[in-house]
Amino acid sequence: MTVFHFLNCAALTFGPHAVYYTATPLSEYDTIGTCVKAALVYLGTTLIKLVCLATFLQVSDNDNFDPYQELLKAFIGFIDVAGLYFALTQLTHRNISQNHKFQAIGLGWAFADSLLHRLAPLWVGAKGQEFTWDYLLQGLEANANLVLTVSLAALGSLMWLRKNKPKTIVPIIYASAGVLATMPSIISYLRSGLGWDFPKVVGFELFSSLVMAFISWQLFSACQKPSL
């Protein structure tokens, strides 16, 4: 039963990434190389973030919400935006469209995040003797993170790669990207500041991921329309 539980949790955590790749044109255009490059950029970005966090953040003996520390974490979190910018604009890609490029980069980025942050806890915890919902919730959280990351990559491609954007929606693009970039700090505030439990936080992440995906899709579609 423990192995079966682990396999279920692993499928819920990592399966959607594989389904996304195979069920979309990403597999037809062989964008696996772009996904791998994005994953490597994510690992490098995470290393830089860890160095910054270890350098500038103070170690606290309690879990109380510290506005100054959280604000500093939010600023350091924008290193992810810089990493996505590098992946979108500086890496060499195969001859793929902008639509496929941001999806491949977002997919590789999200998969690397799940692999780095969820594989070890899943391997150790989900094989335990006592059943817990926490690892199933982690799988749902990974799905929400996938949607949020692809949405941020889509908005990044609009900000940095598309030139002929309707001027009326440019502020909305940047505001939406700002919300997505600060989402980890928002989640941290809900957990530490408001004391939300894990299921409630995951529910918020799933809901917000759907909302931001819809907004990103609408903005991307508006930029795809030919200007009159």
TrEMBL record:
UniProt main location, coarse: membrane
A UniProt-annotated Pfam family: DUF2053
Residue ranges of the TM segments: 39-59, 71-92, 168-190, 202-220
Compartments, record wording: Cell membrane; Endoplasmic reticulum membrane
Family: Belongs to the TMEM147 family.
One GO cellular component, as annotated: plasma membrane
Protein name in UniProt: BOS complex subunit TMEM147
Keyword vocabulary terms for this entry: Cell membrane, Endoplasmic reticulum, Membrane, Transmembrane, Transmembrane helix
Membrane topology, record value: Multi-pass membrane protein
